[in-house]
Amino acid sequence: MDLEIDIEGWPAGQWEALAERVAEAACAVAPELANPRLVASLIFTSDEEVHDLNREWRQRDKPTNVLSFPMLEREDLIHLDPDGPPEMLGDLALAHGVCAREAAEKGVPLDHHAAHLIVHGLLHLAGHDHEISDADAEEMEALEVKALALLAIADPYAADHQ
């Protein structure tokens, strides 16, 4: 998978390098993402931009931490031949203010929380959905935890399960 990354409204940092490492970890736990034809866009942006996107595309009039806009059905992704022209997997948008507030509330570094949200978003682009059922949510959480472990980032759900 190739990531097209745009950074606007985030503080200086290694966001592009982080996103590349996160994408590699996501591909390791969800092999369907490792298809060399896939392209995903990721924008690190402001709460205002994510709020506008959320209102326009999801009819939710508020900012959120990450938005994902899949462009392939899971079945098509799974059966995508690795040879051929580039195929757009989808778009992700991360809101800086929401992410920073959540990281502070959780007592984790912003880059760790951003990594979690990128993994979460990529899994959504791959067709995983935690809102379908408890079993789907548990499966998606397990993939997130595995990917984050590859990056030496602690289980973000550990406190939730105690």
TrEMBL record:
<dbReference type="InterPro" id="IPR020549">
    <property type="entry name" value="YbeY_CS"/>
</dbReference>
<dbReference type="GO" id="GO:0005737">
    <property type="term" value="C:cytoplasm"/>
</dbReference>
<feature type="binding site">
    <location>
        <position position="120"/>
    </location>
    <ligand>
        <name>Zn(2+)</name>
    </ligand>
</feature>
<keyword id="KW-0690">Ribosome biogenesis</keyword>
<dbReference type="InterPro" id="IPR023091">
    <property type="entry name" value="MetalPrtase_cat_dom_sf_prd"/>
</dbReference>
<dbReference type="GO" id="GO:0004521">
    <property type="term" value="F:RNA endonuclease activity"/>
</dbReference>
<keyword id="KW-0255">Endonuclease</keyword>
<keyword id="KW-0862">Zinc</keyword>
<comment type="function">
    <text>Single strand-specific metallo-endoribonuclease involved in late-stage 70S ribosome quality control and in maturation of the 3' terminus of the 16S rRNA.</text>
</comment>
<dbReference type="GO" id="GO:0008270">
    <property type="term" value="F:zinc ion binding"/>
</dbReference>
<dbReference type="Pfam" id="PF02130">
    <property type="entry name" value="YbeY"/>
</dbReference>
<keyword id="KW-0479">Metal-binding</keyword>
<keyword id="KW-0540">Nuclease</keyword>
<dbReference type="GO" id="GO:0006364">
    <property type="term" value="P:rRNA processing"/>
</dbReference>
<dbReference type="GO" id="GO:0004222">
    <property type="term" value="F:metalloendopeptidase activity"/>
</dbReference>
<keyword id="KW-0378">Hydrolase</keyword>
<feature type="binding site">
    <location>
        <position position="130"/>
    </location>
    <ligand>
        <name>Zn(2+)</name>
    </ligand>
</feature>
<comment type="similarity">
    <text>Belongs to the endoribonuclease YbeY family.</text>
</comment>
<keyword id="KW-0698">rRNA processing</keyword>
<protein>
    <recommendedName>
        <fullName>Endoribonuclease YbeY</fullName>
        <ecNumber>3.1.-.-</ecNumber>
    </recommendedName>
</protein>
<dbReference type="InterPro" id="IPR002036">
    <property type="entry name" value="YbeY"/>
</dbReference>
<keyword id="KW-0963">Cytoplasm</keyword>
<feature type="binding site">
    <location>
        <position position="124"/>
    </location>
    <ligand>
        <name>Zn(2+)</name>
    </ligand>
</feature>
